[in-house]
Design a protein that fits this description.
Layout lengths: L2 E2 L4 E4 L4 H46 L19 H41 L2 E3 L4 E4 L26 E3 L5 E6 L1 H4 L7 E6 L2 E13 L4 E3 L2 E10 L11 E18 L3 E4 L2 E8 L2 E12 L3 E6 L6 E8 L4 E7 L1 E17 L1
Antiparallel strand pairs: 1-4, 2-3, 4-5, 6-10, 6-18, 7-8, 7-11, 8-10, 9-10, 11-15, 11-18, 12-13, 13-14, 14-15, 16-17
Helix pairs in contact: 1-2
Length: about 350
């Protein structure tokens, strides 16, 4: 539960002989990089001194009456003479060497940072790679870590703890070829999680990988959803269901999707008029898994028949009234996972 900053030591282990050798080699490389940096700085100081000396020599000759007119303007004819050109070139050369050495300094500083990072990986001290709160620390005093290698013979890292950050969780869901063309960046999303079945969360689409990937002949496109708020108790790889809202309309007539019948391109709904059933042609708009928007054909207050149950003696009609409501269109629930 401790809070750490990036680079803070978390634990220290006793290395075996091979580990000590790698750590010593890494530290020697770090010391060599530091020495190179100090040497480069020393050279820079020397070049800085030479630069000012050459600049002073150039100014002395440039301000001489031989190379400057009485009104202070340059004597262009005499400035083509060898003494002036030689002094000017010495100054420019010293300046170029000084600037070049500054780049050497920058390179040496980068080498020092790289060598230190390599030493941190090989040293007996385990450092925090990022800032956050430590959880799930598996190391205890006396624990033994065994070396692990991959199938290629290279050493592999071992996880000894998790570091939880304050970053807002991100869910990743896979979109089908049909759905991906409908989804846009910043589309609103509602999310439910297996771990919290009684809660609904909100978020938005922040990225869509349009390159996609193919698994068993099926192409999917990962979409990244950021939660609107930080949530305690949400861990990586938890299951999440997402409903992406692709359109929002106010004051529309909605009917259950099961009440709409389409034949030869003509959509109809069955309505109840003075106790009789009537097939009413309609124009439909957006639809989701459960509801369909009716653009024209029926009005608020009409009774829409959703199903009819017939017995030998009685007929029972299930119906619903068209109502004005907000409409959210989406591609249904999409399964994904939470990441950090």
């Amino acid at each position: 539960g401790d809070t750490v900053q990036s680079g803070d030591p978390i634990a220290e282990v006793d290395l075996d002989m091979n580990g000590q050798q790698r750590a010593n080699q890494a530290y020697a490389s770090y010391q060599s990089a530091k020495n190179s940096l100090e040497s480069a700085k020393t050279t820079l100081y020397s070049l800085h001194s030479t630069l000012f000396t050459e600049w002073r020599s150039y100014m002395d000759i440039a301000e001489n009456s031989t190379y400057t007119n009485s009104d202070g303007s340059p004597n262009t004819n005499n400035r083509t003479l060898a003494p002036y050109i030689s002094t000017n070139d010495d100054w420019l050369s010293a300046e170029a060497k000084y600037k070049s050495q500054q780049q050497v300094i920058n390179q040496s500083q980068t080498s020092v940072s790289s060598a230190w990072a390599s030493y941190q990986q090989a040293s007996p001290v385990i450092y925090a790679p990022i800032s956050g709160t430590i959880s799930g620390l598996s190391l205890q005093i006396g624990s033994v870590l065994t070396s692990q290698t991959s199938s290629t013979g290279n050493s592999t890292s071992q996880r000894i703890a998790n570091i939880k950050t304050d970053a807002t969780p991100i869910a990743i869901v896979n979109l089908s070829e049909i759905d991906v063309t409908k989804i846009k960046i910043d589309n609103k999303v509602t999310l439910t999680m297996d771990a919290y079945p009684d809660k609904t969360f909100t978020g938005k689409i922040i990225s869509i990988d349009t390159t996609g990937s193919v698994t068993s002949g099926v192409t999917t496109y990962p979409a990244y959803i950021v939660f609107d708020t930080t949530i305690d108790g949400v861990y990586p790889n938890m299951g999440v269901n997402a409903k992406i809202i692709t359109a929002v309309k106010d004051n529309v007539v909605l009917v259950p999707s099961s009440a709409v019948t389409s034949t030869d391109g003509v959509s109809t709904v069955k309505i109840l008029v003075k106790g009789n059933f009537q097939q009413q042609p309609v124009e439909i708009g957006n639809a989701n898994d459960t509801q369909t928007e009716i653009v024209t054909g029926i009005n608020e207050g009409d009774t829409v028949v959703t199903s009819v149950s017939t017995t030998s003696k009685t007929t029972t009609t299930n119906s619903t009234r068209s109502v004005f409501s907000s409409f959210g269109g989406g591609g249904g629930a999409i399964r994904g996972a939470v990441g950090r």
